[in-house]
Amino acid sequence: xxxxxxxxxxxxxxxxxxxxxxxxQIAAKKTAGVLGDDLALNAQQVSGVHAERELPVVWAVAKxxxxxxxxxxxxxxxxxxxAPWVITPLLMAGGAYLCFEGFEKVAHKLLxxxxxxxxxxxxxxxxxxxxxxxxxxxxxxxxxxAIRTDFILSAEIIVIALGTVxxxxxxxxxxxxxxxxxxxxxxVYGLVAGIVKLDDxxxxxxxxxxxxxxxxxxxxxxxxxxxxxxxLMRTLSVVGTLAMFMVGGSIIGHGIPVLHHWAxxxxxxxxxxxxxxxxxxxxxxxxxxxxxxxIVGAIFLLLxxxxxxxxxxKH
Length: 315
Fold this sequence. Notes:
The chain is an all-alpha fold. It has one domain. Helices cover 85% and strands 0% of the residues. It has 12 helices and no strands. It has helices at residues 2-9, 18-30, 32-45, 54-82, 87-111, 114-129, 136-164, 170-196, 198-206, 213-255, 257-271, 275-314. Helix 10 (213-255) packs across helix 12.
């Protein structure tokens, strides 16, 4: 991964940056889990556009991500310096939004009939394949959605990185957070670009001519890549939604002591189940976070729907 290569090179930087290098590596390890969520969410959200526009869309989202970092890094440093108590409420608001967005997707899937889903997919397919249809609105919608999600996940990454160097000087904090933000952005969107172009790579390999063993191997690899790419995208769609609940639920859980203690209590019970309990204890926090995220998402979606109905009656 690009992030790992860059962080490895930090050990060779001049003596004055030695402390920054070490703390950056610690921060990167602690944010690795969020990086995985970020990758899954963004790969899922930029899929589905015309093949020739996939990389431009990924690049547009990446530019939005860089802009997010330009806003978030100085903002996080300023808040941490002047009003550190504000960070947790802001994170929880972002976590609640992730839960709401995730539950909205689940509700849309459950409440809409198969016929409505087929109609929507038909319209989307027409928009993608019909050269006469303007794709600007479709692209903008996907880009804006991915950038909004990136903003929340980026905020969490930056806050986690900042937390690892809370006792360091302000200059060291700024250096570590800036490096982690840059490395994570390049790493995530480099991988996203690779994922969305897997099918094109498969097609390219399948069209190789020749009877040699090497050409046959290329065509076979291309065939498997073409079959694997849509399955990977479907998997990322599910993983991306689950990640919304787990990340959002984790933020909410850590911000509310009662929920955090409840999660620890459940993990302790599971761990006491013997040999299988040790294994289950590893995934219990993720399951608890997902449950919290589902509940929070359902509550906020209900509140939003009720608000819409009340406002509609008033008008």
